[in-house]
Specification:
Distance between the termini: 76 Å
Low-confidence stretches: 1-67, 182-186, 299-307, 496-520, 993-1007
Radius of gyration: 38 Å
Structural class: alpha+beta
Mean pLDDT: 80
Strand order of the largest sheet: 14-33-32-31-15-27-30-29-28
Number of helices: 43
Shape: elongated
Oligomer: single chain
Helix content: 40-55%
C-alpha cells in the first residue's frame, strides 16, 4: 500500500512538469539524448526519480550532440521506424559462414609456425630446382591433417547451425488488435474479441521490441520481457532460471499492477509506454518505468469523453517485473512486453563466443620447431659457407633446408593427432566413467597439466536437494532418525477436538515467561516451533497438471523446511499474499492472515512475517535468519552459539527460529510508524528497518534451531581431497549466497578441518580493499570467501595484486558471481599464472566460464545439456574428474611428450647423418637416402613401433589414483622441456655420427670396409632401422601386446622389403655374415652406451613412479 501511494504521488508530481507532447519522441537524434546520465543507486525510489528526470530531454540536451545511448522509451504499438533500430531477435552461435570458413580455418592452422613450415616445404617441391624425392611424401601428411581438421570444424559448426535454427524457429503467440469492424454489434463473439486479443503465431527470430507475447507453461522466454499480466489472480508467476544463473529453484516474478487489473484485450489498446535502461550484463538489476498515459475506456462508455484528462501515472519497474531471455515459465500463462532482443538480451550478453583452443603441448612443440628450424638454417648456411658460397649458393641453402626438413618431421603432426584420437577413445570407452564424451579431441594432454580447478557449486558439487536434518530446541534435540518423535509430539499437541485453542492459548501465555520455559509441556514447545516454521517463509504450493502439489520458493532451504513440516503432519495447503492455510495432523485446517512480510536480503540475513490467527485473533511476529544476526535479537540464552557451531561443522545450513507476541495496540503503533517511514523520499529503507527494529526485533522468544543439509554429489569429498593432494588449487564460483557457499565449502571438505575462513563482503572503498589484501598476504593458509561486488571492486582497483595473492591461497570461494565474472576470473588466472585452468559446471550460466578455460568440463545434470555441449569434455558426475585427470590426463600428457620427442629424434638422427654425408662428399646437397627409403623410414619401417609408445604407462591405474602426488610432478612440465629436448638432441647427434656416417666412422669404414664402401647405404640404413627399434624398446616402461607385435612385424617387413629394393641393397652382400656383424657392431656402439646410462640413472636418480612399482 505505502509503496503504491509513494509511486503515484511522485508520478503526478513529475507528470505535472512535463508536456504531453514530450511523452514519445520519434526523431532519431532526439531519441539518442534520452537518459544521458548514469543512474545513481538509491533503491527503488532513487531509480524511479532518476528514470523520471532522464525521461525529460531538456532543451540544452537536444542541441548538444551526445554519445549514442541504448536506453529506450517504447510505446505500446510502436511504429516500425522505432522497432527497426534494435537488433533482430536471432540466436547465432555459429563460428563460420560460407565465406569465412576456409579463411578462418586456414588462419587457425597456419598461424602456428609448425604447420606453416610444413606448408612452405610442401610448396617448395613444385619448384624444379628444389625438388627432392616424391612430392606426395610432403603433400599427403599435411593434406590429411588439414582435411581432418576442416571436416571436424565443419561438422561441429553444422550441429551449431541446427541448434540455432531450432531455437530461431520456435513459435510464439503475439497479441494484435482485432480487425476494424462494426463495434455496435455486441454479439457474444464481439464481446469475446473485445476481452481477448487476436493472436498470431510467429517464429522467435521475427519478434521485435514492442511486441506483446503470450507465454504458456514450460515455454522458453524468447527475449527480455516486462511482465504485464499473468493467469494467476495475484499477478505473480514462477520462472526457472537454471540456464541463466545456475540456480534450480523457481523465482517469483510480479506483473505490472496497472496491467494485471486489465483484461487481455485491453492491453492491446493501452495508451502507455515503457522506459528501459540501456542493456547491461547484470541479471540482478533492471531500471525502468511503466507510464500509463490514460486508463482504458470502459466498453459501455466508448463514446463518452472525459471532461478533464487524468495525469499520467508512473510505476517503477525492477528486476522482479522482468522475464529474462532463456528462462522458462514454470506455471500458468503470462503476457510480456518485449524490451530487449537478440544481442541486447541478458543471456546473450553473458555468453562469450568460443575460441579455438590449442593445447600447451602443441605450443611447446611449436617453440621447439622454431629452434629446430633455426638450427637447420644455420647448418645449411655452414655447409654452403664451407663450400665457399660457390655457384647458386642460395639455391643450395634452400635445398639443404629441404633435405634437413626431416628434423621437423611432417609425420609428427599425424602421429600426435592419431595419439589424441586414441586417448579420446580410451576415455570414452572407460567403463568406470560411463557416458563421458570427448568433444574437443585436441586437448587430452591438457588434462595432465591442470593446476587450477574452478567449479560451480549448484548441481556440480551439490545435487541441490535440501533435506531437514536437525531440530534443536535448547533442552531437546531431534536428529534425522528421531523425526517420528517430533511427529508424535505434534499429533499430541493438535490432538482431540477443542484441544487446539486451549493448547495454543496455554503455550503463548507460558511462552512469554522465560523463567518457566523449562517446565513447558514438550508437545506444545514442538508445536510452537513447527507451526512457526510452517508460517515463516515465502513458499507457494503449486498444483501440477496431474493433480500433485509441489512447493516453490526462491530458496530451496525454505522448500526443505516446509516439506519437512508436511512430513511430520503440518501441511501448507494454500498461500497467497494475504492468507496462509495449514492442515493439522488431525485433518482440520487453520488459517492465518498475512499482515506484513519482511523478505530475506543478503544485508539483513533474516526474514520476518506478521500473521494473525483467524481463530484466536492473536498477532504473532515470526522471524528466522542467520545466527550472526538473530543472536542479538533473541532473548539471552546459553546454547545457541555452541549448537550453531556444531551444526556448521557438520556442513548443515542453520536457521534460528524466533517469535514475538504482539498486542493490537503495539501492532497499530508499529503499522503507523512503518507507513510513515515508507513514504519518505530520502533514507526510506533505513527508516523502515529502524521501525522494525524498534517495535518488533526486540526480546524475541527463541524457539529453535534448524539444520538443513544440501545433498552433495557422490564422492565429492574424496574427489576434492585427491585433487588437492595432486597439487590442484580449487576455486568455487557460485551465484549463491555467502552463507550457503560457506556451508558447502565446509561440508565438501574444500576447507580443511580447523582452517580459518576469511569472509570479504560489501567492500565499498579502495582503503577497505587494500586492508583486506594486506591481511590475506599475511595469512596465505586461509580460505577466502568473497562476494561478487567485492570481487569486482578488487578486480577494478587492484587486479594484479588481488590475483597474485588469491592464486597463492589453498581455496577461494566467490559468491554472487555473474556468468561473466566467472569467465573473467578464469581468464585472469590463466593470464597471471600462465598455468593450466580447468573449469567445470553444469548450467547455461557456466558456459562462458567453461569456454574461457584451458579445459572446460561440462556435467550432464538436472540443468540440461547446455554446459555439456559447450565443454571440451562431458561427464555425468563430478567424481569422474579424478579418473579423467589423474589417470587419463596424466597418461595422455606423458605419452604425447615421449612420442613427440621420439619422432623429433627420428628426424634429427637422419638429418645429422645427411649433414655428415654431404660434408664428406664435397658439400653437395644430395640426399643420402632417396626415394622409397625415405618414405619407408618415416612410415612402414618405424611408424608402428614408435606409435606404440601411446600405450605405455609407468604405473598402474590403482597406484595413480592412490598416489595423486604423482600428478603434481607433471604440472611442472618436465615430461617435455628444453632439458629433455636437448637430451634427445645429444642422443641423436651421438647416434647420427657414430653408428652411421660420422667422419670418424667414415674413416673407419674406409680402413676396415674399403672394398665395401659402396655398401655404406645398406649397412647404415639397416643399422638405423634396428637402432630405432631398440630405442623404442628402451623407452617402454610397461610392455603391451601391440608393442611386441609391432616390433616383430616391422622387423620382418623390413627384412622382406630388402628383396624388393635391389637398387638400394646388394642382395649378395646383404646375406653374408660380414654384413651382419658389421651392422651388429654399429648398433652395439649406438645403443649399448645409452642402455648403460639409463640403467645408472634408474639406480642413482629413479623416477618417483618407479619407487612405487
Amino acid at each position: 500500500m505505502s509503496s503504491n501511494f509513494t509511486t503515484t504521488k511522485i508520478g503526478r508530481k513529475a507528470a505535472g512538469k512535463r508536456k504531453q507532447t514530450d511523452r514519445y519522441v520519434d526523431d532519431p537524434e532526439e531519441e539518442e539524448t534520452l537518459l544521458g546520465g548514469a543512474p545513481y543507486d538509491g533503491g527503488e525510489m532513487g531509480e524511479l526519480e532518476d528514470s523520471l528526470s532522464q525521461n525529460q530531454p531538456s532543451s540544452g540536451s537536444l542541441l548538444k550532440p551526445q554519445v549514442k545511448d541504448n536506453s529506450r522509451t517504447v510505446p505500446f504499438r510502436p511504429p516500425d521506424k522505432l522497432r527497426s533500430r534494435y537488433p533482430p531477435n536471432i540466436v547465432r552461435n555459429q563460428k563460420y559462414n560460407v565465406f569465412t570458413f576456409l579463411p578462418i580455418v586456414f588462419y587457425e592452422q597456419f598461424k602456428f609456425f609448425f604447420n606453416l613450415y610444413f606448408l612452405l616445404v610442401a610448396l617448395s617441391q613444385f619448384v624444379p630446382a628444389l625438388k627432392i624425392g616424391f612430392i606426395l611424401t610432403y603433400i599427403a601428411p599435411l593434406a590429411f591433417v588439414l582435411f581432418v581438421t576442416m571436416g571436424k570444424e565443419a561438422y561441429d559448426d553444422y550441429k551449431r547451425n541446427l541448434r540455432d535454427r531450432e531455437a530461431n524457429s520456435q513459435k510464439y503467440l503475439i497479441l494484435e488488435p482485432p480487425p476494424p469492424g462494426d463495434s455496435s454489434a455486441l454479439s457474444s463473439e464481439s464481446v469475446y474479441l473485445n476481452t481477448h486479443a487476436n493472436t498470431r503465431s510467429v517464429p522467435s527470430s521475427s519478434l521485435k521490441v514492442g511486441d506483446l507475447i503470450r507465454l504458456e507453461k514450460n515455454q522458453r522466454v524468447p527475449a527480455d520481457l516486462v511482465l504485464l499480466r499473468t493467469s494467476d489472480a495475484s499477478g505473480t508467476c514462477f520462472i526457472r532460471t537454471d540456464q541463466l544463473d545456475g540456480e534450480t529453484d523457481w523465482k517469483l516474478r510480479v506483473a505490472v499492477p496497472e496491467c494485471q487489473k486489465l483484461e487481455e484485450g485491453d492491453l492491446i489498446h493501452l495508451d502507455a509506454e515503457i522506459y528501459a535502461d540501456a542493456p547491461t550484463k547484470d541479471i540482478h538489476s533492471f531500471i525502468g518505468t511503466f507510464t500509463l498515459n490514460s486508463p482504458p475506456a470502459p466498453l459501455s462508455s466508448a463514446d463518452s469523453v472525459a471532461l478533464q484528462p487524468l495525469p499520467p501515472s508512473i510505476s517503477p519497474l525492477t528486476a522482479e517485473n522482468v522475464l529474462w531471455s532463456n528462462t522458462v515459465l514454470a506455471a500458468g500463462s503470462a503476457i510480456g512486453f518485449v524490451v530487449y532482443t537478440g544481442s541486447e538480451t541478458r543471456a546473450v550478453m553473458n555468453t562469450s563466443h568460443p575460441e579455438t583452443k590449442m593445447g600447451l603441448l602443441d605450443l611447446e612443440i611449436n617453440k621447439l620447431a622454431k629452434i629446430l628450424c633455426t638450427v637447420t638454417f644455420a647448418l645449411s648456411l655452414v655447409l654452403v659457407a664451407l663450400n665457399g658460397f660457390r655457384g647458386l649458393w642460395y639455391v643450395y641453402v634452400l635445398r639443404f633446408l629441404i633435405l634437413f626438413s626431416s628434423i621437423i618431421p611432417i609425420s609428427l603432426r599425424v602421429n600426435l593427432d592419431m595419439g589424441k584420437t586414441l586417448y579420446a577413445q580410451q576415455i570414452m570407452n572407460d567403463s568406470e566413467i560411463p557416458n563421458t564424451i570427448v568433444r574437443t579431441s585436441t586437448l587430452p594432454e591438457e588434462l595432465g597439466r591442470i593446476e587450477y580447478l574452478l567449479s560451480d557449486k549448484t548441481g556440480t558439487l551439490t545435487q541441490n536437494e535440501m533435506e531437514m536434518k536437525k531440530l534443536h530446541m535448547g533442552t531437546m534435540s531431534y536428529g534425522f532418525d528421531s523425526m517420528d518423535e517430533v511427529s508424535h509430539q505434534l499429533a499430541v499437541a493438535f490432538g482431540g477436538p477443542g484441544e487446539h485453542s486451549h493448547l495454543r492459548q496455554g503455550s503463548l501465555s507460558t511462552g512469554a515467561q522465560l523463567a518457566t520455559r523449562g517446565r513447558r509441556d514438550m508437545s506444545s514447545r514442538v508445536r510452537d516451533v513447527v507451526l512457526s516454521l510452517a508460517l515463516c517463509h515465502n513458499v507457494t504450493p503449486v498444483t501440477n497438471d496431474d493433480g500433485t502439489v509441489t512447493y516453490q520458493a526462491s530458496s530451496p532451504d525454505e522448500v526443505a523446511i516446509v516439506t519437512w513440516t508436511q512430513s511430520i503432519g503440518l501441511t501448507l495447503v494454500f498461500r497467497d499474499r494475504t492468507r496462509i492455510e495449514l492442515q493439522t495432523p488431525n485433518g482440520s485446517r487453520i488459517s492465518f492472515d498475512v499482515l506484513d512480510i519482511f523478505p530475506f536480503t543478503s544485508e539483513s540475513k533474516r526474514m520476518g512475517i506478521v500473521v494473525r490467527d483467524n481463530q484466536s485473533h492473536e498477532i504473532l511476529f515470526l522471524q528466522k535468519g542467520a545466527d550472526v544476526v538473530m543472536s542479538k535479537i533473541v532473548q539471552r540464552n546459553d546454547w545457541l552459539d555452541e549448537e550453531t557451531a556444531n551444526m556448521a561443522r557438520e556442513g548443515l545450513r542453520t536457521l534460528v527460529m524466533a517469535r514475538k507476541r504482539l498486542s493490537s495496540t503495539l501492532y497499530n503503533q508499529f503499522q503507523q510508524s512503518y507507513h510513515d517511514a515508507s513514504v519518505k523520499l530520502e533514507g526510506r529503507n533505513e527508516a523502515m528497518s529502524a521501525v522494525v527494529a524498534e517495535y518488533l526485533e526486540r526480546d524475541l522468544e527463541l524457539l529453535g534451531l534448524t539444520g538443513v543439509e544440501d545433498k552433495l554429489q557422490d564422492d565429492v569429498k574424496s574427489t576434492l581431497e585427491l585433487l588437492r593432494n595432486a597439487g590442484i588449487k580449487i576455486w568455487m564460483l557460485t551465484g549463491d549466497k555467502i552463507e550457503t557457499a560457506r556451508c558447502i565449502a565446509i561440508s565438501t571438505k574444500l576447507v580443511a578441518r580447523n582452517q580459518y575462513i576469511h569472509e570479504v563482503a560489501k567492500l565499498k572503498t579502495s582503503d577497505q580493499v587494500r586492508d583486506e589484501l594486506e591481511f590475506l598476504q599475511s595469512k596465505l593458509d586461509c580460505c577466502l570467501v568473497i562476494d561478487g561486488d567485492s570481487l569486482q571492486l578488487c578486480l577494478d582497483l587492484f587486479k594484479s595484486e588481488f590475483i597474485e595473492i588469491a592464486t597463492k591461497l589453498s581455496a577461494v570461494v566467490a559468491c554472487r558471481c555473474s556468468p561473466t565474472q566467472k569467465a573473467d576470473v578464469a581468464r585472469l588466472i590463466r593470464k597471471h599464472t600462465r598455468k593450466r585452468v580447468c573449469c567445470i559446471g553444469d548450467g547455461g550460466n557456466d558456459v562462458s566460464m567453461i569456454q574461457a578455460a584451458d579445459v572446460g568440463v561440462g556435467i550432464v545434470g538436472k540443468e540440461g545439456k547446455q554446459a555439456s555441449l559447450a565443454a571440451d569434455f562431458s561427464v555425468t558426475q563430478f567424481s569422474h574428474l579424478t579418473k579423467l585427470l589423474l589417470w587419463h590426463g596424466r597418461n595422455s600428457y606423458r605419452r604425447s611428450a615421449k612420442l613427440a620427442q621420439f619422432v623429433i629424434h627420428r628426424g634429427l638422427i637422419i638429418s645429422i647423418m645427411q649433414a655428415v654425408f654431404s660434408s664428406i662428399f664435397y658439400f653437395a646437397p644430395i640426399a643420402l637416402y632417396q626415394g622409397w627409403l625415405m618414405v619407408g623410414y618415416a612410415t612402414i619401417y618405424t611408424m608402428a613401433p614408435v606409435f606404440s609408445l601411446v600405450l605405455d604407462r609407468d604405473v598402474s591405474e590403482d597406484l595413480a589414483l592412490l598416489y595423486p602426488e604423482l600428478y603434481k610432478e607433471l604440472t611442472k612440465g618436465r615430461a617435455l622441456s628444453y632439458k629433455t629436448f636437448f637430451q634427445w638432441l645429444m642422443i641423436s647427434v651421438y647416434q647420427g655420427k657414430f653408428p652411421d656416417s660420422s667422419a670418424a666412422i667414415m674413416i673407419m669404414s674406409l680402413v676396415l670396409f674399403e672394398n665395401e664402401f659402396l655398401h655404406i647405404v645398406s649397412i647404415s640404413f639397416t643399422a638405423l632401422i634396428l637402432n630405432e627399434l631398440i630405442m623404442v624398446a628402451l623407452e617402454i616402461t610397461t610392455w603391451h601386446l601391440y608393442m611386441v607385435v609391432s616390433e616383430i612385424v616391422t622387423l620382418c617387413f623390413y627384412i622382406i622389403s630388402i628383396a624388393f629394393l635391389p637398387e638400394y641393397f646388394d642382395l649378395t652382400f646383404v646375406v653374408t655374415l660380414g654384413f651382419a656383424w658389421k651392422v651388429a657392431v654399429i648398433v652395439a656402439i649406438s645403443a649399448v652406451p645409452l642402455y648403460i646410462v639409463k640403467l645408472i640413472r634408474s639406480r642413482v636418480a629413479p623416477a618417483a613412479s618407479s619407487k612405487l612399482i
